[in-house]
């Protein structure tokens, strides 16, 4: 039940990224809301649900993107699975942990996307352009990572509470 | 019934004295009158002024009521007229677009113009692509050219039943054949998108003379896009003696950030290889 509700939110976020996301560009950087939501769920729920959130988010992004179908799905599934390693760390709630995670997943996501595109025969932007996009995007994601995580945590608690009440 | 009181004797004497003075001594009577007038005049002036002002105030109050009613009516009228102006402006823009499209269509030749709307943009900052609201069910096919009346926007790269993906000409993966429209040079080149924005015309021989401000249109070389569609204007020419070719930076005619009233040039579909 919590995962289904969260999956719905991920799909909504993907739609928002495709329809209004480009209007919210900040100094060349763009918010990767779906990526942050997948990472937050992975940190909260572990490898299985993390990877599944990656599948849902990636598919939703693939459907609105001009890139080959399955590219975002593959990358986000991998990120969802790998970031679950942070589920049991003692530093999970700290600011430094969120900042580090945001930097790491943003670099990995953008790097993997460009490498995969190049491998598939697409022309990719220059390194200068990559830096122009990546640096502000990392900062935006780092600021929003703790917020997205906290909201996901609250949602999980609320929905889990409902589930327990239903069972009683 | 009350008995009527007789007039006091002193009052009668006063009246008789006054009449006597008026009849037999006119000079002092006039002086008294003049004095009285002199005293009364400012009072009368003041009272009359006050009354006049009071009348004016009441008039103003009445007028304010009328003005408020009129103001409401005028506001409603202004709102109605503004809405009408907006509607007429839209019609004017649409009319202008359609006239331009008619000219464009005459230049482009074959194919119908299918009006489409942008429903999404690529979430990735590295891909310049949009999603339009018509797909194969409406006759949209891969490789078809998408235009505004200003010029070329891109080409359909994926057509689904109800929507289609369009790769914008400004994407680094887009390449179309273009021609410089000038009286001196009709040189052709390959126009590609730039990651930094704008377009780059490549493979122009060194001996060709290019000027900034010259218009670039599509060329039918390669058969990917119809000939004669506006692409943009040259804003910079890059020429190095050591290079075989020169390059030109082009400002696209269509504003890719504000895309509205798009049309798919629904002609015969080019081959899949040509569309890439």
Describe the protein's architecture and organization.
- The complex is a heterodimer of chains A (168) and B (276).
- By secondary structure, chain A is mainly alpha-helical.
- Chain A has a single domain (2-163), classed as Arp2/3 complex 21 kDa subunit ARPC3.
- Chain A is 76% helix and 0% strand.
- Chain A has six helices and no strands.
- Chain A has helices at residues 2-19, 33-45, 47-64, 71-82, 95-119, 127-167.
- In chain A, helix 1 (2-19) packs parallel to helix 3 and helix 4 runs antiparallel to helix 5 (95-119).
- Chain B is of the alpha+beta class and 276 residues long.
- Chain B folds into two domains: 10-108, no CATH class; 112-275, Thrombin, subunit H.
- Helix content of chain B is 37%, strand content 27%.
- Chain B contains three helices and 13 strands; from the N terminus they run ααβββββββββββββα.
- In chain B, helix 1 (9-24) crosses helix 2 (26-108).
- The termini of chain B are far apart.
- Residues 269-276 of chain B have low confidence and may be disordered.
- The chains are: A mainly alpha (168), B alpha+beta (276).
- The interface between A and B is medium-sized, with 29 and 20 residues.
């Amino acid at each position: 039940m919590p995962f289904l509700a969260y999956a719905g939110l991920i799909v909504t976020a993907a739609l928002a990224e495709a329809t209004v996301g480009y209007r919210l560009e900040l100094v060349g950087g763009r918010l990767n809301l779906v990526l942050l939501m997948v990472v937050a769920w992975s940190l909260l729920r572990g490898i299985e649900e993390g990877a599944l959130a990656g599948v849902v988010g990636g598919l939703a992004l693939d459907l609105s993107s001009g890139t080959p179908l399955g590219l975002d799905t593959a990358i986000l599934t991998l990120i969802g699975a790998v970031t679950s390693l942070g589920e049991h760390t003692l530093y999970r709630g700290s600011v430094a942990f969120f900042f580090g995670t945001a930097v790491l997943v943003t670099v990995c996501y953008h790097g993997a996307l460009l490498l995969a595109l190049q491998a598939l025969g697409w022309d990719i932007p220059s390194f200068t352009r990559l830096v122009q996009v990546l640096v502000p995007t990392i900062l935006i994601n780092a600021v929003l990572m703790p917020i997205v995580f906290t909201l996901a945590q609250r949602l999980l608690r609320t929905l889990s509470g409902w589930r327990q009440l239903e069972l009683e | 019934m009350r008995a009527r009181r007789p007039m006091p004797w002193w009052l009668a004497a006063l009246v008789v004295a006054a009449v006597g003075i008026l009849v037999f001594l006119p000079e002092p009577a006039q002086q008294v009158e003049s004095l009285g007038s002199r005293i009364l005049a400012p009072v009368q002036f003041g009272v009359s002024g006050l009354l006049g002002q009071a009348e004016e105030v009441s008039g103003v109050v009445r007028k304010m009521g009328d003005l408020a009613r009129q103001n409401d009516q005028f506001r409603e009228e202004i709102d109605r007229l503004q809405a009408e102006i907006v509607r007429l402006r839209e019609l004017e823009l649409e009319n202008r677009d359609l006239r331009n499209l008619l000219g464009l269509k005459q230049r482009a030749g074959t194919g119908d113009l299918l009006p489409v709307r942008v429903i999404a943009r690529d979430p990735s900052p590295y891909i310049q692509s949009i999603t339009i609201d018509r797909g194969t069910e409406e006759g949209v096919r891969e490789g078809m050219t998408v235009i505004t009346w200003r010029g070329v926007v891109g080409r359909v790269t994926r057509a689904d039943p109800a929507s289609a993906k369009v790769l914008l000409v400004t994407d680094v993966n887009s390449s179309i054949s273009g021609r410089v429209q000038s009286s001196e040079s009709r040189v052709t080149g390959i126009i590609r998108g730039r990651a930094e924005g704008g377009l780059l015309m490549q493979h122009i021989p060194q001996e060709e003379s290019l000027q900034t401000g010259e218009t670039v249109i599509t060329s039918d070389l390669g058969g990917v896009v119809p000939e004669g569609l506006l692409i943009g204007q040259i804003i910079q020419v890059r020429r190095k003696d050591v290079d075989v070719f020169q390059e030109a930076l082009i400002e696209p005619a269509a504003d890719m950030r504000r895309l509205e009233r798009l049309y798919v040039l629904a002609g015969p579909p080019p081959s899949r290889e040509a569309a890439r």
